[in-house]
Amino acid sequence: MNPADQPLTGFHVGVTSTRRQEELVALLQRKGAEVTCASAVRVAPLGDDTELRAATEDCVRRPLDFVVATTGIGFRGWCEAADGWGLGDQLRAQMGSATVLARGPKTVGAIRAAGLREHWSPPSESMQEVLQHLLTHDLRGRRIAVQEHGEPARAMTDALVGHGAEVVVVTVYRWEPVPDQQPVSDLVHLVADRGIDAVTFTSAPAAAALLEVAERTGRHADLVDAFRERVLATCVGPVTAAPLERLGVHTVRPDRGRLGAMVRELAVQLSARSAESALQVSTGRVALRAGGVVVDGRPVTLSPAPRAMLEALAAQPGQVLSRQDLLPHLPSGAAATEHAVEVAVARLRAALGPELVQTVVKRGYRLGVL
């Protein structure tokens, strides 16, 4: 296979999504990535639909002036529930007479699938921008249906009520933590220890949940530092990125909020980063990855200690580093001795060729760069 068809060969990518997880994993693996899945949150349908039905009947009973649709899954779920109660046609008729605002492209798709048309959608996919758009209107006495997106939209509701609107809150589902938190905890440690190249996020609650688990496990600072310095945080859109951006984490986002576009942008960014750091050594062209290296397009897995030695030597190509210089680079938990350095270097040579690391007598080691 042409290496250009698999630009993520040798890269290790974490996936935090629950919905459409299989599709995202397939897209990443098709481009050559090794994938670790750790769903951080899941969509939980409401156990009791009494409130949803009451809100739907309220929307049907009297005309609506505005409808705020925030997520595709939520809008579809609302329409499906209304159909089940025999209220679907009436609900869509009321929406058709109202001004429909869609938070983002997925929501637009759900609105159109219901036979309706959105009147406006913010480029930023931000609920704050939707609110600001609404506040440009005289809202006194206006009826506004707000479909929540997994979390209470109290700030928006309070602001609208404060400007004289009557708000019908429509709650279709809630985000909740996954029952098994171990995979999420494992991913936190993997990121914090720089053992992964990138993590993908498709919802803001998933990003927030990963940060919460990091806080509980005492790795929050390590995780944030890793995202700032090495691990690529890749988000489907600006709303998803918000919890990370607030902490000073630079996120990578596609121009269009689609899974395929996100994976393509991830591949572009990681490939560019890899090309910048690649070295031409005696054994070939070596590109560093979180879990090992790629030598002339061939991925080679390295255990943490040899990987750490290679990274330290590659940071100063051609320069001699003593065993004492290399000691601080041994991974936590490894014996911090000169013998441990020697063993790690020996394993590195065994994996990538004896000529990769040169011994300079009585001085130390250097990478055999060309």
Structure notes:
The protein is built from 15 helices and 17 strands. The chain has helices spanning 21-30, 50-61, 72-84, 88-96, 105-113, 127-134, 154-162, 182-192, 204-216, 220-229, 238-245, 259-277, 304-315, 323-326, 338-352, and strands at residues 12-15, 34-37, 41-45, 66-69, 99-102, 143-147, 166-170, 173-177, 198-201, 232-235, 251-252, 279-281, 284-288, 292-295, 298-301, 357-360, 364-367. The chain starts with 11 loop residues before the first strand and ends with a strand. The strands form five sheets. Strands 2-1-9-10-11 form a five-stranded parallel β-sheet, sandwiched between helices. Strands 5-4-6-7 form a four-stranded parallel β-sheet, with helices on both faces. The chain has a four-stranded antiparallel β-sheet with strand order 12-13-14-15.
And the CATH topology of the largest domain? Answer: Rossmann fold
Question: How many domain regions?
Answer: 3
Strand residues, percent: 15-25%
Number of helices: 15
What is Rg? 26 Å
> What is the CATH domain class of the largest domain?
Alpha Beta
What coarse outline follows from CA principal-axis ratios?
Answer: elongated
Q: How many strand segments?
A: 17
Report the sheet with the most strands, covering strand number, pairing sense and barrel closure: 5 strands, parallel
Q: Supply the CATH architecture of the largest domain.
A: 3-Layer(aba) Sandwich
Query: Which whole number gives the mean pLDDT?
Result: 89
| N/C terminus separation | 28 Å
